[in-house]
Amino acid sequence: MSIANEKVKVLIIGSGPAGYTAAIYAARAEMKPVLYTGIQPGGQLTITTDVENYPGYPEGIMGPQMMEDFRKQAERFGTDIRFGLATSVDFSSWPLQVTFDEEHVIEAESVIISTGASAKWLDLESEQRLNGHGVSACAVCDGFFFRQMDVAIVGGGDTAAEEATYLAKICKKVHMLVRKGELRASKAMQNRVLATPNIEVHWNTETKEILGHKTVDGVIIRNLISGEETTLDIQGFFVAIGHTPNTEVFKDWVTLDEHGYIKARPGSTHTNIEGVFAAGDVQDRIYRQAVTAAGSGCMAALDAEKFLVAKETATIEE
């Protein structure tokens, strides 16, 4: 049975490091946060295996387990965690209204958007099957596991170029697979890639299949001009063709940048809508790390708390 117009102080939409951290801070401040997980509870880290670069885990930790730890900590302080998807919002007046699963309407005094961004994939069966087992969408996150190995990276933009040069520092050989006969990256990044001796650029190339059973052990590539297929011996396969911020439901209300990410006021998590805050990858297309997402989740909770205190003070003075 749906509940119409339930009222909450702090509504958090999304359950990755940003959402859970916001929940921990909001709950400890006795703001009684309600958090909706979205369709992927725990966010992208739930499809990540070893996480070795998050502070506090000296031996590393599996991504799903780390998100479970985040969830338990948020619950410990009283966060009401629910499974559900935001299907529409109305930010035209305060309190703010968000509808979940097309039927459950919540009136919130403040909203923290932490819905993240989803990596774009090649839509190969082998890519999804080996995701987290040699296939990754984040070279900075996972490149360390492939030190002194041969890897491949797909993409021709700035992100792909940056990640290729990063991988080249720790990997033996980097095969860069580019669909066109040129890179879309900035001239400076192009020069850096082409000047790096252990990066081999394969022009006019598409990925046919990633090879391997439990881990990646090769990739079949096809030249789009000649049709020739080649098998590369690699141990890691990185996809760097971009991310899609999960902002569709908010786009008519909050200001987005040219890439679709929520624009937050510099030095804060404030959006253009009073009482609406954005944290994590949904507003960060540059860093996209668990630790930076968690940090912005903390900021969002503190910003929301200040906003609510100011609202209460103004009400009392009236």
Structural write-up:
This protein is of the alpha/beta class and 318 residues long. The chain folds into 2 domains: 6-118 and 243-317, FAD/NAD(P)-binding domain (3-Layer(bba) Sandwich), CATH 3.50.50.60; 121-239, 3-Layer(bba) Sandwich (FAD/NAD(P)-binding domain), CATH 3.50.50. Helices cover 26% and strands 26% of the residues. It has helices at 17-28, 63-76, 125-129, 139-142, 158-170, 187-194, 290-317; strands spanning 6-13, 34-36, 50-51, 61-62, 80-82, 86-90, 96-100, 104-113, 117-119, 135-136, 150-154, 173-177, 199-202, 205-211, 218-223, 229-232, 236-239, 243-245, 276-278. Helix 1 runs parallel beside helix 7. The longest helix is centred in the last third of the chain and has 28 residues, at 290-317. It is elongated.
Compact description:
This protein is an alpha/beta fold and 318 residues long. Helix content is 26%, strand content 26%.
One letter per element, helices H and strands E, the order comes to EHEEEHEEEEEHEHEHEHEEEEEEEH
Our measurement of the CA-to-CA distance between the termini, rounded to an integer number of angstroms, reads 38 Å
Largest sheet: 7 strands, mixed
Shape: elongated
DSSP strand tally = 19
Task: Determine the fraction of residues in helical runs and give it as a percent range.
Answer: 25-40%
Compute the number of helices.
Answer: 7
Overall average pLDDT: 93
Q: Strand content of the residues, in percent?
A: 25-35%
What structural class is derived from the secondary structure elements? alpha/beta
CATH-assigned homologous superfamily of the largest domain: FAD/NAD(P)-binding domain
Q: Mind telling me the C-alpha Rg?
A: 22 Å
Based on the coordinates given, report the CATH architecture of the largest domain: 3-Layer(bba) Sandwich
The CATH class of the largest domain, by name, is Alpha Beta
What is the domain total for the residues? 2
Low-confidence stretches: none
| CATH structural fold name of the largest domain | FAD/NAD(P)-binding domain
